[in-house]
Amino acid sequence: MTTKITELPKYERPYEKLEIYGEKTLSNSELIAILIESGTKEETSIQLAQKVLALGEESFENELRFLQNVSIEELKKIKGIGRVKAIRLKATFELAKRMANPVTNDIFVYSSEDVAKIFMDELRYEKREIVKLIILNNKNKVLRIQNISLGGTNYAFIEPKEVLAEPIKMGANRIILLHNHPSGNASPSGEDYEVSRRIDLCSKMFGIEFIDHIVIGDGEFKSALIKK
């Protein structure tokens, strides 16, 4: 017979443990168990949480990274996690992802490293290539961050006209392009360099400075812009 959470000593119960000793003392399964709230007749919330974590056992990612991509349908396949619990977990994982990449109204970037720091946690875990455009004024203040393209696991379609349409409309001075490599390897491909060359050429025609094309990997970044 499964031991109920309420039958455990207080110092072993997730709610009480967090309240008394702090959130850092809880294991990953205990933290997720709090979100799940209740178990079933057969399993405790901690055991259900362990099954959630087990969804990532075959992943090449670290223990928690897969959670941002796990689907509601996958969560619901676990007996004891219904629609409401699955949605609650999915919403929490998304919030955690967004909190890792806070955006303020006044962002200034003075180097490629500044850009990488802002977007590393958001893009390093993505399973598809995402292309973003940072539009700046002449003082390097970020005016807008625009999603340009969502590609597959090893490609993203980038056209200069799509990249430059909004900066031209806004009368922007500078732009920075960036995208991720789901493989984790930030080394630019030949196509990355070619896209940079074309955008650099087109942006000059409109008096827009193309500062850099940054490729985000897993904890690393590299430039796909050939400096002259």
Topology diagram in text:
Blueprint: H1 14-21, H2 28-36, H3 45-54, H4 72-76, H5 83-99, H6 112-123, E1 130-136, E2 142-150, H7 160-170, E3 174-180, H8 190-205, E4 209-216, E5 221-223
Parallel strand pairs: 3-4
Antiparallel strand pairs: 1-2, 1-3, 4-5
Helix pairs in contact: 2-3, 7-8
Question: Would you mind describing this structure in some detail?
Answer:
With 228 residues, the protein is an alpha+beta fold. It is 39% helix and 15% strand. The chain has 8 helices and 5 strands. The protein has helices spanning 14-21, 28-36, 45-54, 72-76, 83-99, 112-123, 160-170, 190-205, and strands at residues 130-136, 142-150, 174-180, 209-216, 221-223. It has a 5-stranded mixed beta sheet with strand order 2-1-3-4-5, with helices on both faces. β4 (209-216) and β5 form a beta hairpin. α7 runs parallel beside α8. It is elongated. The relative contact order is 0.09. The mean pLDDT is 86.
